[in-house]
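worker-03 picked up job from queue 'complexes'. Input manifest follows; two sequence lines, order preserved.
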Amino acid sequence: MRTPALELMDVRAGYGGIEVLHGVDLVVPDGSLVALLGPNGAGKTTTLQVVDGRLLPSAGCVHIGGRHVNGTPAQRLARAGVCSIPEGRGVFPNLSVDENLLMVTQLHDDLAPSEVRERAFARFPNLANRRRLLAGSLSGGEQQMLAMARAIVTDPALLLIDEPSMGLAPVVVDAIYDVLKHLTAEGMTVLLVEQFANKAMSIADYAAVMINGRISVFCEPADLENVVGAYLGVSA
Amino acid sequence: MGEFIGLSIAGLSLGAIYAIAASGLVVTYTTSGVFNFAHGAVGMLMAFLYWQLRVQDHWSAPAALVLTLLVAAPALGLVLERGLISRLNVNDTGTMLIVTVAVMVALMGIAYVIWPPSIGRLLPMFFGPNGHVSVDGELVSYEELISIGLAIATALGLRLFFHNTRTGVAMRGVVDDRQLMAMNGRSPQVLNALSWMIGAGFGALAGILTASTYSLDVINLTLLILNAFAAAMLGRLRNLPLTFVGAVVLGLADAYVTGYVRLTGWLVELVPVLPTLFLFIVLLALPAVRLRAGRAAVSKAIHVPSAGASLRNGVVLVVVAALIAPFMHGIALGNVNEGAALGIGALSIVLLSGYGGQLSFAQYAFFGFGAWLFRVLGHGGNPWALLVAAGAGALIGALMALPALRLRGLELALSTLAFGTLAWYMFLSQPQIIGGGDVTIPRLHLPGLSLQNDRVNLVFLAVVFALLSAGVLAIRRSRFGRILVATRDSDTACATLGLNLRLTKVALFALASAIATFGGAIYGSTQMIVTNTDFEYVSSLFIVLIVYVWGISTPGGALAGGMSLALAPLVEVHIPVRFQALTYFMTGLGALTILATPEGIVPLVSERLRRLNPLIGLRSRHTRDMSVGNEQLLARVEVSRATPADA
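worker-03 finished. Artifact:
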């Protein structure tokens, strides 16, 4: 069996003495998309923060590609190929679209800015017309696309994405999920956090359900309905 | 025509220096979010270092420039950022500002110790005394042309850097979202440190240009910060092109007013306050800051004594004063009197900054105003003059607060410093007021008390301090006090509760200014002979700094602060002349205790004492029980949150 892209073992973490994760065990197999589902406050975002280096776990192990990464700062993980797109548009509102794309190249000196733009605009043509505008003036959907451009351009080893559909129109959500589907088809490993299970289940290889700081269910999407369908309100 | 060109070039070159200094300030502020009050002091220290290398050690100009601008200045910026600034909470604007003020004082101390001011120092012009060209009959020095050229180069260079390089764009981006920058693979810490290194470099360049064009002087170079700030404020400390416009306007205004306007009477000192006037106009013209939901800086709760406890403390203070007064004499007695008077005035800082969370750097303007009022109104030491002084102070304080209401935090604090500067030059220093050398002020006269005797006066000051601090504590415990603390923590939340923020802030400034002016009148009556130099605007920085170190939220901090200021000269005479400036240095270093105890030394000590006291020890054990209760409560919350999973 290949080394999983991401493995959490009994991870505990919290904010200022209040523990949020009470021992999370989770495996994201290489090349798969795992959807992390669960109600508000379950610890989904905290789990992502522990993985991408924003939050130091108080106990347990975080392994990325088989390597122990607890306590590695976010910028080093980013350079090592972990791409994390935070909740609520991961863009710099006071930089222009072009400049936001330039930030992507902080990771890779060999990536020419023109190439980055080319690849991003090929995927999201409407961004090309907004190149000189400040990212903060874009619509929510355009901002999410701009944030996703980082994942498209840098070809990360592990993509972490937090609630990409939050507050967006259904048609935009479809476009975003198309991109995710395409990326996983190319073999990218993705850990996707969602509150709305339906959309995520359509592209996920596995579903992990988080409740009260623990993973309570890990299964294939088809089985999810049987296991916790009633609880999460999933209906086929 | 020739004169006009000459003046224009002189003005542009001055504006160029302001522009270079201001760009350093803006670069540091936009990236790291910290307003570096020590920016001018960094430039000052580097100008002295340049003098040392160039004149004392006979280095060539290019070698000395490379070492100061490219090595020493960035290294100093790096040390400041890594050693101090990065350890502070960015959301706590007040502490941040105070710490950079402390750095400023410490750097001034270093400069005074290494380069004693008793010796005059001249920096040679880059191309000697004959290095000038003639434009239409006016001599224009190479120095001026170099400054203008460097400012243009700075403008173009920064524009290219911030828009066309990855590092530059990242430095703009890191302000938006530090964590996102880290997730993009750039360390926000490194970007912060870089911004401080670049800022220090520009500060040094401006310092050297000022020193070689004008003069090499610790105070003048350190206060270059005020002019740079005025220029940067046009772009709200963020916009570089507008900062350059502001700098050029300031420089030209300085040159044309000097060259064309014959200043007489009250306006003699107009030139040095031009930047301040400019600042006021800008502040009034800028749109008001909107309320923002921000994260309040969490500070340790300071124990507020009950009415009984504050009276008890007051009685202890008076008894102590009465016991030591008979044994004091001479200079020491005078200085302790002065310290007590300053402590009374410093109570205004406790109210305004400690409880209200507003920093004001205009305290000495009110002290001076109070002293002058008592001189004018207090014939024969008439005590009613004290009350009139307090009332007038309240009025002026409210007037000062009105434009300031539009501003918040940093901008507000700096505009009060501008107010203080203006008051010192345009009012206190006027010969009709107290600017014409020593002026005498009557000692307060109360029937039945011989206050003329300094020992009696000391006990009287202790009584005044005790009563006033009991009053300040009563304000803190009142409804108004709770509103003050709530406004300090989140004015947005207060606005949504329907509280009138404007009224609260005006009342706060009026009350604090009344106390400061009253304290100033008492100070004047205690000193009996004062000059305008007793109330210099820079002193306002010192007193706020010192009170902050001792504890800005307790009356004890105010008294300790006043005493430290007044008693420092007693200690200084026992230090070798060469090291007398060490007190500056020690002040700065002492202020670094803020890093360890942001709430101040007095609360820390009294907390320790409370723990030692067996009677109150019972109460603290009670508090501990409470905290256990909280933990149980939390556990219960955890359990109830866990229930759905079990179900």
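worker-03 released lock.
Chain A touches chain B through 31 residues (CB under 8 Å).
Strands of chain A lie at 6-15, 18-28, 33-37, 59-64, 67-68, 82-85, 158-162, 189-193, 206-211, 214-219.
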